[in-house]
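S1.2 Input.
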Amino acid sequence: MGWLTDLMRESPALDVARERLALAQEKYDAVYAENDILKRQLADAEADMAALKSRLAELEGKPPGALEPVEEDILKLLGQGDGRELTVSQIATHLGINKTKADYHVVKLCDDDYLGFPLIMGGGEPEIYVQQRGREYLVKNDLI
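S1.3 Output.
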């Protein structure tokens, strides 16, 4: 087996394979380092964005995390004591606003976990309900 090892040590194909492996390792290391840099930049950007959102809320005269009045109205409507669930169309009708506007605010509240809707839906519009975060907002802001 010694002659085979000697042959492989001197093989040009093996030298090419070593070079390619070294090049692949260099590329991997560069991508790994770039990934670390991008992760740090993303964390910095997210921190900056949070600070800017807080500053914007300050400038608008709203406490950080405050909802728009129409969003508070939606929460109050759904947060009434009877465990009410309504569709977006019903919410729009109750509040006297355009369905598109109601849909926009309901989706925003759902994305922020104030509202929810069943994952299993029948043929019609899903009925929206208040989640724990929405109830907490109503209670802490003395809206119910």
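S1.4 Remarks. The longest helix spans residues 12-59.
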